[in-house]
């Protein structure tokens, strides 16, 4: 592929140690969701979304009772055209991990993207999400990010 | 007695199972469901198929009579019967619109309309069945003329929306076309007399319009009011002067009458106005809401009130709600949970039904 990378030199962070959290940790629920999505590979780089700090423990909140999940991720650069692909990956991954009736809202962190409002709108338009996932190229990219072992 | 003074129950009559993916849309076949003609309903799905369901005259329950498959190669987003009920048009993410005819026991694909660059999202037949409109992600609205022999000729490609167009809907008795879009607006299209179609009005945020994607629109029976629903979690009612519309220049402006907010807490995907004046809405909060005009409102300022709340109508998002036009108070709903539900609106005050 001759396409240039959107972000050629991302900052890579060490993988965080995975410690089992004590059950009485009041934030247990917040961190609980992250382990489902932390290993998703970045669409451009052989690193996980967690290693690139696209996701952190604060990124995901799961309300089991209401059946709602909110993910806020931070694209590595302000003009990341991969933001919508990352959104598709997150949505697909969560679909596999949580009951089908859970409502998922995905956003970019405030101020983290030049077209924040447009990106957020597209990430949450389920018709566009459904159509994107029927596109063979996008579907393949998402599958690679979700199931690639070349991290 | 006004509808808002009555108490109602929305009774679940049947769950129709068979689709293998989310059901996007349902459409009742015109002129069925009364006078001994069994009610017929079409549904379409992410499973790339269309199903046709028919009510058994003896048991009253709906059964799948036909599965229309192997024509669309991607999601079938919406379906619409021609006014005579002879043809069924289906819009697909595969960029085509298919037209089906009921031949013997089968539905045969008699025409495929190509032209949109990518996903076709909605289709609508005009009142006489002589025109068909389609719209899609390519931001355009197409008008097709229905010619003899199941031929369809594109007569106009309307550009004007700045984002994908979610739905097209013809006015119930005039050849005026309405479209709503991801660009948050509703556009009104009319012919200028020289076979040229133009946008004659745009209902945007500045006209008390929606502040996010407008997913659907529906007219009341007389066609002087329109309801729209949106990702901004509101429903809006718009009105126009019927006499000016009928004068034929098609340019009677539509004005915002009121905004219904606080009734759904996630995207409202569908709104449908029944012949007798009940507005149904279905949303991503899994709920159905019914509204009706308050008889006490002034003619100039009609008021709308919540008639009924049905929480957990489905296990997942409600994508489409459609009243039967047969006057039997049947409502069909389609959901991400892969099912269609048939509901009957029952008046708890007694058996009297208002004349239709």
UniProtKB/TrEMBL annotation, chain A:
One Pfam family this sequence matches: FeS_assembly_P
Stated name of the protein: MIP18 family-like domain-containing protein
Superkingdom classification of source: Eukaryota
Gene Ontology process terms (BP): protein maturation
Residues annotated as domain MIP18 family-like: 38-107
Family: Belongs to the MIP18 family.
TrEMBL record, chain B:
Any GO CC annotation of this UniProt entry: cytosolic [4Fe-4S] assembly targeting complex
WD repeats: from-to residues: 16-54, 69-101, 113-146, 158-189, 207-238, 311-345
Taxonomic superkingdom: Eukaryota
InterPro entries assigned: CIAO1/Cia1, WD40/YVTN_repeat-like_dom_sf, WD40_PAC1, WD40_repeat_CS, WD40_repeat_dom_sf, WD40_rpt
Keyword Repeat among UniProt keywords: yes
Keyword field: Repeat, WD repeat
Free-text function comment from the UniProt entry: Essential component of the cytosolic iron-sulfur (Fe/S) protein assembly machinery. Required for the maturation of extramitochondrial Fe/S proteins.
UniProt name for this protein: Probable cytosolic iron-sulfur protein assembly protein CIAO1 homolog
Species for this entry: Coffea canephora (Robusta coffee)
